[in-house]
Amino acid sequence: MESHAKDEPLTVILFGSAGSGKGTQGDFLLKALNLEKVEGGELVREKAKEGSELGRHVKEVHESGKYLPDEEILHLVEEKIISVPSYRGLLIDGYPRRVGQARQLEEMLRRLGRTNVKALVIEVQGEELKRRLLNRSVCVNGHILIGRNFTRCPIDGAAVEVRDYDTNEQAIMKRIQFYQEEVVPTIEYFRTKGWVVEVNGEQSVEEVRKEIFKKLSIT
Ligand SMILES: [Zn+2]
């Protein structure tokens, strides 16, 4: 484990399967620590909107349903991190998704002098994830709602849709399987670096928040 200055801003790499509640918990961390969010999928979508050559390339790959090569995602993530003042901490979400990407990220963070890093894992077992995903709806603005009987989002009044990959048991199992096969080995890689902090995601939202704040020494 590397040592780091006590006042060095925290970099949190957030892990948790769909249905683990990680979006909600990530928002708590963003607010409490004034972190800058670095979201893998968002960086790709934003870059695809740019008129630059790289933007057009990213758009093409994204629209074809393929993944960007690791080197290109790394470039987008690095570009974003460099734009954040070094006194501000980071919340990295949706990246890395594979061990190779984890190695690249670790090397980059070290190079950029961000050595106060935690890989926060919100743990929820497969059966519970399945139960949660089969019982949720999502408004068009991304609010995740528990239950299936909404016509309007209680938060902003927007239309509510049930996403196919949340209704179809087979699709849900595929997402859980992807997490097990690709993301869990990524977490194990960070464990060898002494970065992993695990919390029990099968508690109330407030209890999960408390466990996270305690384990990250946030007061
Ligand atoms: Zn909403």
Question: Any chance you could write out the topology, listing elements then pairs?
Answer:
Elements lengths: L10 E5 L6 H12 L2 E4 H10 L3 H11 L6 H13 L7 E4 L5 H13 L5 E7 L2 H8 L2 E4 L4 E3 L13 E2 L2 H4 L1 H23 L4 E5 L4 H11 L4
Helix pairs in contact: 1-9, 2-3, 2-4, 4-5, 5-8, 6-8
Bound molecules: zinc ion.
Zinc ion (ZN) binds next to loops.
Q: Main beta sheet, described?
A: 5 strands, parallel
Could you tell me the mean pLDDT? 90
The number of distinct β-strands equals: 8
Helix content: 40-55%
Low-pLDDT stretches: none
Helix/strand-derived category reads alpha/beta
Give the overall silhouette. Answer: globular
End-to-end C-alpha gap: 24 Å
What string, H for helix and E for strand, traces the elements in order?
EHEHHHEHEHEEEHHEH
CATH architecture: 3-Layer(aba) Sandwich
Report the CATH topology name: Rossmann fold
Number of helices: 9
What small-molecule ligands were found? zinc ion
Q: Report the radius of gyration as a whole number of Å.
A: 18 Å
Instruction: Supply the number of structural domains.
Output: 1
CATH class: Alpha Beta
Strand content: 15-25%
Biggest sheet strand line-up: 2-3-1-4-8
Word description of this protein:
The chain is of the alpha/beta class and 219 residues long. The protein has a single domain (11-215), classed as 3-Layer(aba) Sandwich (Rossmann fold). It contains nine helices and eight strands. A five-stranded parallel beta sheet has the order 2-3-1-4-8, with helices on both faces. Strand 5 (136-139) and strand 6 (144-146) form a beta hairpin. Helix 2 (40-49) crosses helix 3 (53-63). The longest helix is centred in the C-terminal third of the chain and has 23 residues, at 169-191. 27% of the residues are buried. The mean pLDDT is 90. Zinc ion is lined by residues 139, 141, 143, 153, 155-156, 158. Zinc ion (ZN) binds at residues 139, 141, 143, 153, 155-156, 158.
